[in-house]
Write the structure tokens for this entry.
Amino acid sequence: MENIPYREVRRCNLSRFTEAELAYLQSQRLGRLATVNKNGEPQVAPVGFRYNAELDTIDIGGYDNEKSQKFRNIARNGLAAFVVDDVLPPWKTRLLEIRGHAEALPDGGQEAISPDVSPALIRITPRRIIFWDSTTDPPTASKRNVE
Amino acid sequence: MSKFTEAELEYLKTQQAGRLATVNSRGEPQNSPVAFRYNAELDTIDIGGPNNSKSQKYRNIVRNGLASFVVDDFTSDGGRGIEIRAHGEVVPEGGESMYPGWFSPELIRLTPRRIIAWYISGKTLPFSKRNVE
């Protein structure tokens, strides 16, 4: 899967993300994924991800991905919230939360993440995006529905 | 006696932030980075924040008490961390001491129900999954 540079996506006006959000996503490799089980209870786990520029989605892989509770939760109900965040000195926080519709797919994981992980892939299509970046002056803040 | 092992408590003390998942009125998850501390007196995880009671996660906890909290990081040996599935409640005071002048008094308090830990107890016990209530 060939990654289109985010600037081209932006120019084509295809992405639900802003340029700053895409730049942040592409600078990070780890996020945390929240899903919901059949009893309606949440779980949350660190995961490796890539921004998929072709589909404008977040693609998430992992070791034994298809056996994981999060994968089975998503196969059951499609519910997911994914957050990428970090802190730069001195206490400059950045955060991108993506609430969306998630799919549990049988393959694509190794191409998206690494040959070491399993083929199974979680794909999130954004429905709501929340962005905060206090490294800019003034801080950048956005909350919006994107579907 | 704590529901956490000594190694888990030591690990929690080395970390300042985690990610809290809650569930809204429609059953949908949300996910936020938060500052926390282990409350040794009550054996709970206490979570503070600026304008904490105005946040969606706080209102979600008030409504349904559902929470899962993960603390994790990377070392030269790879990833490690702990997930705490919990009963969440809100308490009106105590949060301001976490970051005086910034955090509001209201706290989210998590009582562990299930603990999942990986690689924080050393390679001899890489995984632990257990109910603790």
In short: The beta strands of chain B are 17-23, 29-39, 44-48, 66-75, 78-91, 107-118, 127-131. Chain B is about 15% helix and 50% strand.
